[in-house]
């Protein structure tokens, strides 16, 4: 089969290589799937660079999230059968940027029928992260104000839709007019283009000075520091990641003075700490998808041969919405 492999660490465009490799073989707890679509995520970028907490042995195939059709199952797999359309996490090193991939039964789910393959491939990580962050960690309530950073990105776009579905007023922060259009299309009530506006001022004006009840921060650094200037009394800041490249540094005396909470979110831990909650979350998200309340915005659908360039655009912050490999698309002809 064909698969993108990482034989050395570096920027995705420099190290990803499309190779012919042996078909992966499922372990007893695994499924072998034909990849229908695989979404690009920032962990794929970090794994290429060697900066992610999971450091697979070289060479490996990235693509941590996918939609696939079950081809074969290991001896211990009881919930799925050949032909099932599924979504979930890939069993790295046999990731989703390939014609075939491996998935663990514990982190595999039936794909929502309301979503096409590219949307389904983009549904697992971002929407589960958003749901656990907003509902399990922050206890978001109807009528509250939610501030979402990187609102047109993978996890941010999911948070916007989930916030609206929960009855919150959503303020989305983006970088550039194209991303502002995406945030509006997702349902954000107010969209701030950080290139020309100060989100702190916008939040204070929109809330009559009270501030945002919940801040969803996958960016970190200066974005986090500025968010503390517009957090409401008893507000909650959810630390989702640091895509901006700088880790958040919390001034705890400031949290004490303003009575706000700083909540860490490592969604992947729920797969081992509370797997039943993950399955219940998938059921709730599927219901929301069926009701038309949530659906990933996939702005780029790429053939297998264009994956490296798509992952690099994600790394460079140039993507709008989600970027996904979709099986069966025609590949560019060499000139």
TrEMBL record:
GO terms for molecular function: oxidoreductase activity; zinc ion binding. It holds the Pfam family ADH_zinc_N. Residues 11-325 form the Enoyl reductase (ER) domain. CDD domains: QOR1 (cd08241). Transmembrane segments: none annotated. This is NADPH2:quinone reductase. It comes from Haloechinothrix alba. The lineage of its organism: Bacteria, Bacillati, Actinomycetota, Actinomycetes, Pseudonocardiales.
């Amino acid at each position: 089969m064909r698969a993108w492999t990482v034989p050395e660490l570096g920027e995705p465009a420099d190290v990803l290589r499309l190779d012919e490799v042996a078909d992966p073989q499922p372990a007893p707890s695994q499924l072998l799937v034909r990849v229908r679509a695989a979404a690009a995520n920032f962990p794929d970028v970090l794994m290429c660079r060697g900066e992610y907490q999971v450091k697979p042995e070289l060479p490996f195939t990235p693509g941590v999230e996918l939609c696939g059709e079950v081809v074969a199952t290991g001896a211990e797999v009881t919930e799925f059968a050949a032909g099932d359309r599924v979504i979930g996490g890939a069993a790295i090193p046999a990731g989703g940027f390939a014609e075939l991939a491996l998935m663990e039964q514990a982190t595999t789910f039936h794909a929502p029928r309301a979503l096409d393959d590219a949307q389904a491939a983009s549904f697992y990580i971002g929407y589960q992260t958003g749901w656990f962050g907003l509902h399990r960690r922050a206890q978001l309530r109807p009528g509250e104000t939610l501030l979402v950073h990187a609102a047109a990105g993978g996890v941010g776009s999911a948070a916007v839709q989930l916030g609206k579905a929960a009855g919150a007023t959503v303020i989305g922060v983006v970088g550039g007019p194209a991303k502002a259009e995406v945030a509006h299309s997702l349902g954000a009530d107010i969209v701030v283009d950080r290139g020309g506006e100060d989100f702190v001022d916008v939040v204070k004006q929109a809330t009559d000075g009270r501030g945002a009840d919940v801040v969803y921060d996958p960016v970190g650094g200066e974005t986090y520091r500025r968010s503390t200037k517009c957090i409401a009394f008893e507000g909650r800041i959810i630390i989702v990641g640091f895509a901006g490249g700088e880790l958040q540094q919390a001034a705890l005396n400031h949290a004490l003075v303003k009575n706000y909470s700083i909540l860490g979110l490592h969604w992947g831990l729920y797969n081992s700490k509370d797997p039943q909650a993950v399955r219940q979350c998938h059921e709730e998200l599927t219901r929301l998808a069926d009701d038309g309340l949530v659906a990933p915005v996939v702005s780029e659908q790429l053939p297998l041969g264009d994956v490296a360039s798509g992952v690099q655009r994600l790394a460079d912050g140039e993507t709008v919405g989600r970027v996904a490999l979709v099986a069966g698309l025609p590949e560019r002809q060499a000139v």
